[in-house]
């Protein structure tokens, strides 16, 4: 997914390390080794040796749940989302939580999470988590921003064809016993112009698929991006809306993107054009869209995401949830789907694998590679034969003098390796030190934890 709007540096979204960077090379080598069955022979445990408990919510891949259990974690798995009150009541006994898009991790929840070390979002977005509050609490947040890109792109292709052929309405009529064969206002997508707003992983894959169907592709993104195939970048959103027969949105939910498609933008679209939103529920002003469809300026729409969504399967999608729901459901050539853009077996398996690896690496080795709200720090594994070596993981406020304090505390020992980085107000240093006696470990941990900048200090042995 493209990130076309700049985010504040203290909570900026982070992707995997860039190709060619030392961390990227380390991460690539480690994944290659693991794929061949080569794993670090020294498994690290918290100094306190407390059994780690994970709370897994919503329909997360069962393979991810099985992976956590196979690594010795105690896992409580519920297939539904939890409300804020339920989380506040239960989260204090857990060290990690895995969620999808419906569970909200608010500042209130984080204040109640006295043991929480890590949050795994088994989905693309992280707007359901208060990222800044999590970072201030020393809790990295991981997600899988690209694993369901193909699934979303394929859904858009199916919606392009269904809207242009009025397929949903014809199928519904026949299922109710009405035969209504017609060709009026039914079109091929070949030769039509597809406008993609946000030319990231989803948008670029969609671009390739659309061109294979003979469509002309234009895109708008605030970043200058090299197009794939014959796609062409336009300079303004208005230019894209003016030219496109179909407009599809692939942007994150940010203050700058909320209601980015409203009355003014809908009026700029071609008469008889179609709008598709599989991005985030608040980027389209739906009451304005309803009026544009009623006036026949917009010929149809496909919507997979909504400002407010039911918490569980079977719950009502009605006017109590969104006041315009019944009016939208009654309109012709409107395709509504229950946030299934990434809901394929392939996508969920890939997301489960990626996020569970991130979470396990952080809990077991301190690695924050892939964190969206944290500096990305990693060290090579402690190997067999280094039983006197311990790993120090020190999360602290980003202020002068911290490394001096930490290194003063470590000075009696041999520092085998060390890495530190900062992101906004949060900094993180990892160090492996040797020849530390069991008696020294507790005393050393207390000394580092008692520094005035300390947020969270863990020792892995």
UniProtKB/TrEMBL annotation:
Give the UniProt keywords, A-Z: Amino-acid biosynthesis, NAD, Oxidoreductase
Instruction: Return the CDD domains for the record.
Output: ACT_3PGDH (cd04901), PGDH_3 (cd12176)
* Example GO molecular function: (S)-2-hydroxyglutarate dehydrogenase activity
What does the record give as its pathway?
Amino-acid biosynthesis
Q: Name one GO biological process term.
A: L-serine biosynthetic process
Would you say which domain of life the source belongs to? Eukaryota
What InterPro entries is this protein classified in?
A: ACT-like_dom_sf, D-2-hydroxyacid_DH, D-isomer_2_OHA_DH_cat_dom, D-isomer_DH_CS, D-isomer_DH_CS1, D-isomer_DH_NAD-bd, NAD(P)-bd_dom_sf
Q: NCBIfam families in the record, alphabetically? A: PRK11790.1
The UniProt entry's sequence similarity note says:
Belongs to the D-isomer specific 2-hydroxyacid dehydrogenase family.
Output this protein's name. Answer: Uncharacterized protein
Which source organism? Ephemerocybe angulata
Traced from the root, the source organism's taxonomic lineage reads:
Eukaryota, Fungi, Dikarya, Basidiomycota, Agaricomycotina
């Amino acid at each position: 997914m493209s990130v076309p709007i700049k985010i504040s540096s203290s909570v900026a979204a982070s992707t995997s390390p860039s190709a060619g960077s030392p961390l990227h090379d380390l991460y690539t080598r480690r994944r290659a080794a693991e794929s061949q069955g080569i794993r670090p022979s020294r498994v690290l445990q918290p100094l306190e040796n407390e059994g780690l408990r994970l709370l897994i919510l919503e329909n997360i891949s069962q393979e991810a749940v099985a992976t956590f259990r196979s690594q010795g974690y105690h896992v409580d798995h519920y297939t539904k989302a939890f409300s804020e009150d339920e989380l506040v009541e239960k989260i204090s006994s857990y060290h990690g939580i895995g969620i999808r898009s419906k569970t909200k991790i608010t500042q209130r929840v984080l204040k109640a999470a006295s043991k929480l070390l890590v949050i795994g979002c088994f989905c693309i977005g992280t707007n359901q988590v208060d990222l800044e509050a999590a970072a201030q609490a020393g809790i990295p947040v991981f997600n899988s921003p690209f694993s369901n890109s193909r699934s979303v792109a394929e859904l858009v292709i199916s919606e392009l064809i269904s809207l242009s052929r009025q397929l949903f309405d014809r199928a519904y009529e026949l299922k109710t016993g009405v035969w209504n064969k017609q060709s009026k206002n039914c079109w091929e997508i070949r030769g039509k112009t597809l406008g993609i707003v946000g030319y990231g992983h989803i948008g670029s894959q969609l671009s390739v698929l659309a061109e294979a169907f003979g469509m002309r592709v234009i895109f708008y993104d605030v970043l200058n991006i090299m197009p794939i195939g014959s796609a062409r970048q336009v300079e303004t959103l208005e230019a894209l809306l003016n030219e496109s027969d179909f407009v599809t949105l692939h942007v994150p939910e940010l203050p700058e993107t909320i209601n980015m498609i409203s009355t003014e933008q809908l009026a700029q679209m071609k008469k008889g054009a179609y709008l598709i939103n599989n991005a985030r529920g608040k980027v389209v002003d739906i009451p304005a869209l309803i009026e544009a469809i009623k006036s026949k300026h917009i010929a149809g729409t496909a919507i997979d995401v909504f400002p407010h969504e039911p918490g569980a399967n079977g719950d009502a999608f009605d006017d109590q949830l969104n006041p315009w729901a019944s009016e939208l459901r009654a309109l012709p050539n409107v395709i509504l789907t229950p946030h299934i853009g990434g809901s394929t077996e392939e996508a969920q398996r890939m997301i489960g694998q990626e996020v569970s690896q991130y979470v396990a690496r952080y809990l077991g080795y301190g690695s924050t590679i892939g964190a969206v709200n944290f500096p990305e720090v990693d060290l090579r594994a402690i190997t067999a034969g280094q039983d006197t070596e311990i790993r120090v993981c020190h999360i602290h406020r980003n202020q002068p003098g911290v490394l001096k304090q930490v290194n003063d505390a470590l000075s009696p020992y041999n520092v085998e390796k060390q890495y530190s980085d900062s992101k906004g107000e949060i900094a993180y240093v990892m160090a492996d030190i040797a020849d530390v006696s069991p008696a020294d470990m507790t005393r050393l941990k207390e000394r580092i934890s008692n520094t005035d900048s300390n947020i969270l200090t863990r020792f892995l042995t």
